Each structure stands twice: as C-alpha cells, then as structure tokens.
C-alpha cells in the first residue's frame, strides 16, 4: 500500500533535539557511595539538615530494590556506572543575568526553542532552566518577587529559604517512598522551587525546561511547589535531551502542596530522546510526581503529554486530603518504535466530598507498548467521594500494544467511582476518507490523533497545546507501518 | 475526461470487476446502476484510489493521465471526488477544520494561497445554505453522531466546497426520505456544468427522477451489461434487474449462436 510505504519513510525521521553542547563541565567521579552524596551536598554548600536527609535517603535506598511490577522490559541499570553530578563550570561564579551565561549555552536553548530572552516578556513566561544539574538562569524573578512569589532554583531556595524547604521537602514524597524517589532524595542536584503566598494569583505561567547534556549523567531534579491559602499557579515543564547511544537515567521527583482554597495546574510536555528506530539509546524516565490537596477546597491538576523517553515510569497522583478538594489527571502518552510507557495516576480520596477526574489517552505505534495503570482509592472517611475515569487507547499498526490496569479500592459505601475504557485503531477507512479529500496521509494521521487527544489538549495552556500537537505529529510519523 | 478500458480488479484473490469499459466526458452525468454485489462500490472506490483492491488488468485514463498510478490524495487534488456510501467518523475533529484542511491541501497542491479562517467560513456558510445545513454542523466532529441524512448532506457540502472535476457519488441517495432526497438532488444539480463530470452510483431509479442522467449503465457481476439513455433507468424500475440480466443473457446467447453459425458456415 502506498500510504504505508510513505509512512514507513517518515518513521526514520531523526530526533530533532539531538545535539550535544561542548561545555566545560564540573563532574564528580563515576559511581555512587556515601561520599558521592556528601560531595554533592558540599558542592551545593547545603545546611546540615539537607545533608542529613540525603544520607538517610541513601541508607534507605540501599535497602530497596528496583520495582519489577511495571509492564516494562529493559536491561539492568548499573547505578555505579553513572555520574551523579555534572555542572557547567561557570556555575561556581554564578551567573547573575543572561549576559553572564555562556553564549554556547544560550545557543543550545535557542536550538531548543526555549524563549529565554527578552521576548519572554511578550510570551509572559518565566523560565527556570535546568541544564544538566544546575539551574542556569531564572528570569522574571524580580517581577514575581514584588508579589512575594518565590521562583528559583532549588539550590537557591535551600540557601535563601531553608525554613520553607525544611518544612515541605519530602512531605508529599518522603525519601522512603520508592526506589527511584529514594535515589533522587540522596543525589538530586537541583530543580525548581516555587512558593505562592496566600491570596496571590501568579500572573504568568511559570516554566522549567530540563535538558540532559553530559554523557552518562543521571538527571535527578527535584521540584517543590507550594501554593499557600487561596493562591493560584500554573506551571509548565518541558524536557528534551541530546541523542546518545547509551541509555540515560532520569529520576525526578515533583512535590506539589496546595493549602486551603489553592489551585495548582501542572503541565508537562515531555520530549526526552526516545532512542532510535531500533530501540537503541534513549532516556529511562522514572519519575515520582505527587500533589497533596492539603487544605479544604484545594485543587490540583496534572496534565501531561509524554512523547519521548525509551522507558516511561510515571504516575502523577493526588492525595485528596482536604474536604471538597479536587484532583485531575489528563494524559496523552505516545509510544512509537520501541518505546515503552507504564503511566497513569493515583487518586487517594481521604477528605469528604472529594472529586477526581482521570482522562488518559494512550497512543501506540510501531512496536510501542503503552500501559495505563491507575489507582482510585477511597478511604473510609471520604464521604461522597466521586471519581470518573476514562481511559482510551489508540493503536496504529499491528505490532504495538495497549494495556490497561485499573485498580479500584473503595472503603466508603457513599463513593461513586466510574471507569470507562476503550481501544480503537486508526482505521484504513479513516485514513482513506482523509486522503480522498486531498489531505496527505501523514497530516491525516496527526489530525486523527489530535482529534483523539483533544480533550486533554484543551487542558494545556495555549502555547503548550500548539507545541504538543506539533510534537505528536513528529513523534508519530510512520506509526502505521 | 475518464476513460476506463477492460478494467479487472479483485479483492483477496476474488475477482469483482471483470472487464469494465466506460467513457465519461466533461459535462456529462452518468448513472451506474446494478443489483447488490455487482461491483458498483468497488468501481467507485477503486477510481478514488482505495488500496484494498488489486487491479489485475486494464487501464484508467483521467484527463489524459494514468489514474491508477496516482495516490488517493493526488487524485483528490487533481479533482477526483468520492462521496462515500458510508461517510467515516473522525472524533474530536470539527467538520470546519476537516474541510478547511482538505480545501487548503488541494489549494496548496495547485500553488494557490491557503484560505484563512475568515474567507473559509464565508465560503462554507454560503455552501451550507445551499444544501440546507445548519451552522452548528460546522462545530460538530466529522460525521460523529450524524444521522444518515446528515452524513449524506455533509458529503454534498464537501463536494460543493471542494469543487472537483469528476464527482463520483456512491449511493448518496440511499436511506433518505423524500425531502432529504430532493435536497441532495438539488445539491447535485447545482454542481452540474459543462466542465464537470458526475458519476451517480445508485441502486434505485428515484434519484434519477430529480437528477436526469445523460447515460445509464447497468453493472452486473463485474461487467456493464447494458448502457442507454435516461429511459433505461425507468425500464429497470418497472422490470427489475432480472430483466437486464435475462436480456443480457439472451443477447449473449444470440451473439454466441451467431458466432457459432458463422463458424459453421461453409
């Protein structure tokens, strides 16, 4: 079939962000032991409570083993064959504004299309860029600080706001949580920190871009967002990585805390390098993301578009502790070539009148394997808890797979939990209908897929929605082969 | 415009078309009639480029070019349009977006500037009025939850917006009540002009009361067994398809005996 052939040609399209920046890096010796942890903490000039916490995490990590329950298949990871810290050299002096940043680095950001320069004012985006392991530049900090908003690299928050860090760090994802979260707690190098004071509505979208650059570097960033009473923040996270043959490890932790009446919207467009078409290389992405609706009437929503990574292991979850709190999870996960994703969410209903919505769209193409894994848990005290889950899978081609593992635990009889699931295939008839109207097959496929994902894209901020749609188009090419 | 010669086609090794010959000129309306499973839809879809069918013999020339070597989207951009018997649903994509994408893909192919949203909307609204469609249909997902009649009308709207040179309508009249049928027929008549050819594939004669064809062909078991003017359709309506079949078989028998006689002649 001509259409199949055309699509097959497109499948070979290269990862567009696959370039490597020559920068002098400050790297510590290969491998992981207690002195690695101490060295990282020392490099960051951390207070004693941080070192102590990291060491406890490291000791705990030694007692854990990698989870084997996910529907993922990959060779064992050698945790001693990775660098746990890599920072551009200039970090020691600490850039104060964009003009002090290595122009090579800025060019890298330009290639990535990150709006790091003055045009950001127009875009209204404040970016905290994490390049390998250190936050390089944080923009708009001053404008935000007049509102009392703290938005800075995690390491800076440790120095300037240790009391906030100490109060909230690990309060949603403790260092004992799971294998990867423990590892992260021990060795995390940087990340973003955000605090919105009571009653403040953050006037712009806050954004972090992560990019793994150095070879064999694990990226362990940690993000902590606290929305105080009746505040609001919308946060965007974008990720890319250069192309390498070896697999790179990414084990991040994100903690969100919403106090009474607060609302946090957290959106991710993840475009890590997925490996080549034969499954060589790519990022192993093991991420723990959790939000805590700690106060009454608080509201946390996760929106994710996952198109990259060789392996994705990720379950952005919400603990619905406050009465009347709301948790949402909107997800598009796409696997093409040999990508594997085991992703979903956990909604833990503790408070009364809590509501959660889960909308998951999985797209599998090539040899991609896509697993939705979701837990809806209603505790005995959660009167009138409501959950609605919709979980749709779309298959392109015959060699890919979609799997759904919904777990439902209800301990309160007043709960209403609904689950709907569907699996469909992009039909030859749909494709023919589009091409018969003059639409080229690759455009037709991305149109059909974006139609399938529409309900999730609607949850993304405008500029991200456009990016996500483009990404899907690129990631999918050749998928029906 | 369209010249089909000795066209044979099969699906999964089963021969469906067994030697079709058909000439269609610009400005003409041809009706292709025939009982179920006679190969009507196969012919219509094959001309539009559906890859399910394998052409085993014969040729199709369209505007002097080899139609069979073109991809479906090339055919569409060159002006071949198929109104589907069963229009396909595309969830999440609005009718407006779909039609605008199609129109602009065709315009791009002809190196014409793409229409912006405003120009497109004014064009499509005007066409919608003609086929009696409500504006709200623009925002609904393509064919999703449409009634049978709405789907067929939507095909005519697409036809009217895309303005093809060769329109093939596959049973666009089936399943319609009389009012809907008249609307569809008006839409088709609206499209008749001296530069456009229309092929109506239909099971019943009643559409042809409103859209009077120049030629009627009867397809049976993968062959055109009878061709004639608009009257042929009326005869079919009175006598049924068996009349054509027996007639054709009789004709064939006469021909055969003549050949035999001729061969036997000293």
Can you describe what's shown?
Chain A is of the alpha/beta class and 481 residues long. Chain A is 25% helix and 35% strand. Chain A folds into two domains: 2-314, no CATH class; 426-481, no CATH class. Chain A is built from twelve helices and 23 strands. In chain A, the strands form three sheets. In chain A, strands 5, 6, 8, 10, 11, 13, 15, 16, 18, 20 and 22 form an eleven-stranded mixed sheet that branches. A ten-stranded mixed sheet of chain A has the order 4-3-7-9-12-14-17-19-21-23. In chain A, strand 3 and strand 4 form a beta hairpin. The longest helix of chain A is centred in the last third of the chain and has 17 residues, at 441-457. By secondary structure, chain B is an alpha/beta fold. Chain B has one domain: P-loop containing nucleotide triphosphate hydrolases (Rossmann fold, 3-Layer(aba) Sandwich), CATH 3.40.50. Chain B contains nine helices and twelve strands. In chain B, strands 6-9-10-3-11-12 form a six-stranded mixed sheet, sandwiched between helices. In chain B, strands 2-1-4-5 form a four-stranded antiparallel sheet, with helices on one face. In chain B, strands 7-8 form a two-stranded antiparallel ribbon. The longest helix of chain B is centred in the last third of the chain and has 24 residues, at 241-264. Chain B is globular and about 50 Å long. The interface between A and B is medium-sized, with 27 and 32 residues.
What keywords describe this structure?
heterodimer; A: 481 residues; alpha/beta; B: 266 residues; Rossmann fold; 42% helix; 27% strand; SUF_FeS_clus_asmbl_SufBD_sf (chain A)
